[in-house]
Amino acid sequence: MRTTAALMIALVLLAGVAGAQDAVMPWTELYRVPVPDELPPHPRVFCTQADLDRIRGDYEAGDEYTRVAVDEILRRAEGIATDAAPLPDVPTRHDFGRMATLAQAYALSGDESYGRLALQRLVHAAEICPTLEPTHSRGLFADATLREGPIAIDASMAWDLIAGAPFVTDEQRRQIEDDLLRRIGWISGHGCRHPNSSNWRSWALAIMAACGFATGDRELIDETINGAWDPDRELYLYGYAQQIGHSIFADGIHWERSVGYNYYTLSALQWVLLAAENSGIDLWHAEIPGILEPFEGGANHEEFGPPGPRSIRYLLDGQFYHSFPNLSIARINNSGTRRLNYHQIYELASERYRDPKYAWLIRRERDDRAAGPPWWSLWQPAGESEAAPSDDARSEGIAWRLTTGEHGRIALVQNVHVPADRPATVSGWVKALEMDGGSAHIRSNIEDDDAVFTDRVQEAGDWRQVSATIDPVEGAGAGETRRIRLHLFLEGGAGDVIWDEIEVRSGDGGQNYALNANFASLAADGRRTDFFSLVHAPADVPDGQFSLADDAEIGLAGVNEGGCTNFSIGGFTILRGDAADENSPAVNITWGPYGSGHDHPDALAMIVYGRGAIVCPDAGVWGYDHPMQLTWAKQTIAHNTLTVNEVSQYPQEDSDSIWASERGDRRVFGVQHLFHAGEHFKAARFTCDTAYEGVLMDRTVALIGDYIVDVFRASSEEEQLYDLALHGRGDFSAEAALEPAPDGWLGARGYEHIEDVRRGDAPELLHAAFAGAGPSVSVLHSAPAGSQIITGVNPVRSGEPPTSAFISRTRAQNAEWVSVLEPFDDSATVSDLTLQQLEDGLRIVVTHPNGIDELTVPTDTDRAIVLQRAQADGTPILDEAAEPVSR
After folding, report:
1. How far, in Å, CA of 347 to CA of 345, rounded?
2. What is the percentage of the chain residues whose pLDDT exceeds 70?
C-alpha cells in the first residue's frame, strides 16, 4: 500500500535525523538547471509581446472581459497622470505600483504619454536609490527584503514594458538598470539575511528574478535558479532548485510548517516561475532531483529524500489536503489561514498541469467573485445575504447593494496599502433602504488583530457618510506602508443598504487609495481585472473536480486515503470520519519536525472538528508585535498537548523570543507508528521523546463513527508534573467538585493568562462538556489515580469565539489518560466509558446507540490497534485491525 511505503520513507528519514551524519556533499555537486545563453527581447519578465498582441486583438474584437480590464487599467493610469502631486522624496511601494500601472497602460494602448510618465518616475527612483542605505533587514525603499519584494516586481515590470520604447535614452537605460534594479537585486535579493529555506529567501528569489531578467544580469538570474556559494558567509544561498529540492518536502509540506505562509511563499515563487518561463526556462516541468544528504553550506534541517524528481506541484497540491470536511483549516503554528484559499498561482498552474482540482478552485473563486465588484471580494460568513449592483448611485454610475436576513452577515472586502507614517481617513456613503436590527458600517482591520470602526447606520434613511480616522504606525518612517483591510458591512440583523463612494485618504487628503471606489467597473466573468489576470488568467476554465473523499498521492510521500490525509515527512495527519459530510468529526494531529520560528512548541497536539466547526482549536497566531504571541500562543499549555513541569516544550522552553528555534544539534520531531484509514474506524499513533529530555510522549487517536478516542501516555525515569491540556469553544462544565483556586496559583508563563481557575480531585470517570455558540463537545475523561482537574477561561483573541481550558494534572513517572470526545448539536450519544487494563495494553469500552465498541491499544507501538463492535446482547458486528508500519 502507498500508506506503508510513505511511512517507511518517514522512518528512514527520521533515522537520519536521530543519528549524526558525517558525510557532507560539496556544494559543487548540487544539480543545476540549464540557463540559456541568450535572453529574448523585452518584454520578457512577467509578460511577452505575444501576450500583449493577444490582448490587443481581443480588445479590438470586442471581448467583454478584455474591454473591462483594459479600460480599468487605462482609467487608473489616467487618474495617476492627472494627479498634480509632486514626485515623492523617496518613492513608496504605492508609488512603484503607480509606475507599473502607467507602463501597463502604455503597453496596452501605445499611448506614449503613459510610457514617458512611467520613465520619468523610474528615473527619479534611480536617482534616489544610490543615496539609500540598506536597512538591517536589507531593505532600500522599504524596511526589509520582504517589503522590497513587491517594489522590485513593480519596478521591473514597469521597466520591462517600456524598455524597448524609442523615447528611452541610453543614459536613462543605464540609470534604471544599474542604479535602481541591479542595486535592489543585489542588496535586497542576494544580500537577504535569510540564506536558505524561509519565505524570506523565496522573496529574495522573486527580487533577483525580477531585477535579473529585467536587466539581463546573468549572475542574478543564475543565483535565482541555481543558488550560489557565498564565500563571505560560508553558506550556500538557496536558489529555486534548492528550495524545491530541500525546503519543500517530498510530501508537499514546506519547512516552515505553517499553511498560511505557504501562500505567502507561493506569492514569491510565482514570479520566479513566470520570469524564467518567459526566457525559456521551464521550471514548472523541470526534473529537479530531491536533495538526499547534507551539503556544504546548506540549511541545517535534515528532511532529505526520498529519491525522485521534485516540483512546485507538491506544495500546490498539499494545500488542498489540510482541510476539514467543510474546507476550514486548523490555524496551526503561525498560520492565520482559516480555509482552503484561492491563489492566483493556480491560474498559472492550471494551464501548465491541467489538474482538475486547480480548475475546481478557480471556478469556485470566480463564481464567488462574479457576485461582487472588481477589486472587492464578497464575504458572507453567516446567515442569508445577497449582493448586487444598483443603479441607485449617489451621483452617477453604479453603487453596490447588500441585503441580509435576520441572522445574515455580509461585507465587501478590499486590502488597501497606505503610508504608515501618516493618519488615514476611511469613509463611505451608505443609504439604508430598510433596517430591522441590521447595522451598516466600515470596519478597518489593522495590525495585531486591531480594528477601527466608523459610526453605524442602523435606521432607514437617505444617503449618510460614515468615517473613521486611523492613527499612524508609531515609529514608522517615510516610505513605509501599512495594510488596511476594509469591510463594508451589513450585519447584526435584517437590512437592505446601498454603498457608494468609498474613500481611503492619507494625511491631508491627496489620492484615494481604495480601488474601484465608486464601483464603476463591473466584473465580466469572475476574473480579476488587474494586469496579472488580464495576461495570465485563462478565459475558459472547466468546472474541475475535488473531493477529500477521493484517494490521491501528494508528492512522493504524502497520501489522501479513505478520506484521511497523511503528510509523512512534514508531520501532519488529518483523520476524517466521512470526508464528504461537513458534520462528520475530524482531527488534525501535528507531530513533524520543528519548522523554524514559525512553528510552535506543540508536538503531538490535536485540533478537533465536528458538526461543521473547529470545536477544539489551536492557540493560533496573535501577531508578532502582540505580547500574547510570546506569553500565550508560543507556550505549550495553550495547545492541546502535554506540558511538563509547567515549562514549554523545546525549543521554546523559557525563551523570551517568539522566534525560538532549535539550537546546536538538538532537534524536535515525532515518529509516526500507525496510520489507518479503514472502513469502520480511522486511527494514528505517534511518539516523541525530543520535546522534553527524558520524557517519552505517546499519543493514539482513533475516530470511530461520531466520536474520538484519545489515549495519551507519558513516561520518564524521574517524577514529573504532567499537564495534559484540552481547549474548547464555549464554557467548560464538569461533573466534579471544583473549587476556585487562589489568585496567582497558575503563575507560570502561559498559565497566568487562564482566568476563573477552578480545581479539584479527578473522579474515576469525568463527565464534562464544552458548550457555547455553535456545536458542543462531550468529554468523558479517565485520568491517572490521584490526578487533579483544572479548568478556566482562556484569553480571547479579537474576532474569535471564547474558549475554555481543561487541564488534567498528575505528578508521576508514568501516566496514562483516556478521553472520548464527541462533537454534538443537541445531545451526545456516547453514554459510557470503561477501561480494562491488559497485561500488554489497554482495552477501551465505549457504549453508544449502535452497540458497544472495544478498542484495544497495546503498550508496544509495533502491535496493531483493534476495534471490535458488538450489539448490546454481545453479538459481534465488526472486527477491524489497524496495523503498524513494518520495520
Report:
1. 5
2. 96
